[in-house]
Amino acid sequence: HRVDLSHSFGMAVTEVTNAQFEQFMPEHRALRGKDGLSTADDEAVTNVSWYDAMNYCQWLSERTGRNFRLPTEAEWEYACRAGTPFPFFWGDGLPGVFHRHQQKSRTLQQVNLQVGVTPPNAFGICDMHGNVEEWCLDWYAPYSAEAAVDPCVVSGGLYRVTRGGSHNTPEQYLRSANRMAMIPADRHSMTGFRIVEAPYPAGWSIDES
Description:
Order of helices and strands: EEHHEHEEEEEE
Oligomer: single chain
Distance between the termini: 28 Å
Helix content: 10-25%
């Protein structure tokens, strides 16, 4: 369905790293290396819940006097596509430089989750196809077939949207349009987040976080 964004927003070039997140939550360091992943300062932070990510945004906003939050699902896909109509910003597939064991396996394979080392898209944003899945602001819900302006599911539901796919999953799950969902309290070695700078969507309540 057609989606229009009526507002501008700034999106982080990379996912939030261990070093960045642990300025806010130093105790997270105990989770570094879980499942053999994300051990270094400059690797994407993992094992963070949706609530952890939201609290980080609130902490950073208060610290800087700016408005940081998680991206809406629509903002995330717009930034990922970077003006392209293809399954990936690169085209119909992803070259090997983007791959971090893009296949299913019983045990997660150890891969480097360093941010910013793959080629950026046309907007200058890195790591939106893979690396780690990224929390979005929205509750997970079926798409409407109707065109929408600034959509965001601000209430109801059991799951929060995640986008981008991750390491240790088949390439098809890394597509710009692919959407997944997780219980917001869950923490996983395949999931992290990035932030945007923008006001909250219309209808958003602080009670939702």
